[in-house]
Design brief:
mainly alpha; binds fe (ii) ion; 7% strand; 2 strands; elongated; 5 helices
Length: 168
């Protein structure tokens, strides 16, 4: 059976692959669908960490408001901000006003801001790379080395029993 630390690392790899595919095709017809898949997967992954994996770590280590998980929570907030900014760029774009020469009136038009999407996606790639590495080296390794087999499989079982959990 898959171990919780292996399962979480595999999920990083799975999400990285979807995100790389999105970044290659961020202007294409598949962009929205790829991004939605990535975004919902990453938001679920973050929730598993914050709700299921951080608590046993914090209880044993005796640190919640400072220490590794406090830093990881801050990084999760930054990751969600970047997801939001990519989502806004894909969905709506930016509104600008153009003057109509014949009437002199200002007319609102929406332009797609590709630069914003790609810049946020690049930032997100960098933030995620460092964040995932840190989790694997600190949190996942700790789970693997500290918890008993039964505790680890109980944590994995909780994640896998969540509604909407993907079927693989
Ligand atoms: Fe995380
Ligand atoms: Fe993670």
């Amino acid at each position: 059976m898959t171990d919780i630390s292996e399962f979480m690392s595999q999920d990083h790899d799975r999400l990285d692959a979807i995100f790389a595919n999105f970044r290659k095709n961020s202007a294409g017809g598949q962009a929205k669908q790829l991004f939605s898949q990535f975004e919902s997967g990453l938001r679920a992954h973050i929730a598993w960490e914050e709700e299921i994996l951080f608590p046993p770590f914090e209880e044993r280590i005796g640190m919640r408001d400072s220490g590794p998980t406090a830093v990881m929570r801050v990084e999760h907030r930054r990751i969600k901000e970047l997801l939001r900014s990519i989502r806004d760029g894909i969905d709506g774009g930016r509104q600008v006003f153009l003057r109509v020469p014949e009437t002199g009136r200002l007319q609102p038009i929406t332009i797609k801001d590709r630069t914003g999407v790609d810049a946020s996606a690049n930032d997100l790639k960098d933030v995620l790379q460092a964040h995932n590495h840190k989790e694997a080296q600190i949190l996942y390794l700790w789970l693997e080395r500290t918890l008993a087999d039964g505790e680890r499989s109980a944590l994995l079982g909780r994640i896998q029993s969540l509604p909407g959990m993907r079927e693989n």
